[in-house]
Specification:
binds 5'-deoxyadenosine; 43% helix; globular
Amino acid sequence: MDKAAALARRLAAGEALTDGELLTLLEQRTVESAEILRAAAVETARKTFGNRVYLRGLIEFTNYCKNDCYYCGIRRSNRKAERYRLSPEVILACCDAGYDLGFRTFVLQGGEDGWWTDDKLCNLLTAIKKTHPDCAVTLSIGERSRESYAALKQAGADRYLLRHETANDAHYAHLHPPELRLEHRIRCLYDLKELGYQVGAGMMVGSPGQTLSNLVEDLRFLQELQPHMVGMGPFLRHRDTPFANEPDGSADLTLYLLSMVRLLLPKVLLPATTALGTALEGGRERGILHGANVVMPNLSPADVRSKYLLYHDKLATGAESANGLNQLRTNLQAIGYEAVVARGDAPTL
Ligand code: 5AD
């Protein structure tokens, strides 16, 4: 048995590995170590979630962004991005349509858009919760003040996704302009947690400058934060960014890390992301078969979907859209899973 397979067995058995051992597990990844992690991760997910997969309806409601992250297609310096902002009425209509399709969680994701003040967001949250009191609302709108997070929570937000992107300071500075600080992002995550949100962190896999030991730091950060959700997908280049010529992240390494995260954080809500679905044929199903338990089909109106391009060739049709929901259900059934109509809150940790 190879060294990584031996380490994989120990991780699968619930043993704590040292940083050095986690690094070796990543560095010496083999087909055998991957299969050991995969099988154990699926088993672990089954213990908490059975064969249920939670659906989240993703509404990409604005692609205006004041930030200039080097990897992201909707960065403010990208003059070629066609900017749009959905009106509250359109967002509510997306939620209504999603509700009829069986969604009980709406994820409102957008760039850091100054137009969306706390007041406007609070009104929107109040309206969604009034029509759909049985639904959870997740926000994914970047860094804001603690006061803002508190107001949004008060208005009805239940969950918040804010990927940490990388837990290494120097790597963070390689991915972001100087005004964005890892320290601040981490502060936001702890604020959100303290305010009672179910919180999601996460990182891109294979982002420019990332080393495998950076990924070990990410795993340790996640273990320390104990988020309710972990969002993780491969880095995929966008031609109108400074990283246009960087190689895409590996889908296989992403799957391997999904399994590791499932084993390290057994009850975490773990989506098979759009980026994984884009990078790999059947990527979302593959993600489920590596320990993920959430998928987030796109509920955004068709005419704006192609404008929310964080990276290239993003899945925008078929099983990715709510229209393709039946296809997604069928695909999940084919691998032994069932897409459920439920809020799908994080199990108590
Ligand atoms: N490739 C993959 N993921 C990306 N994201 C942003 N740009 C890219 C890209 N080029 C991810 C970031 C962000 C999330 C909304 O999308 O991790 O937090």
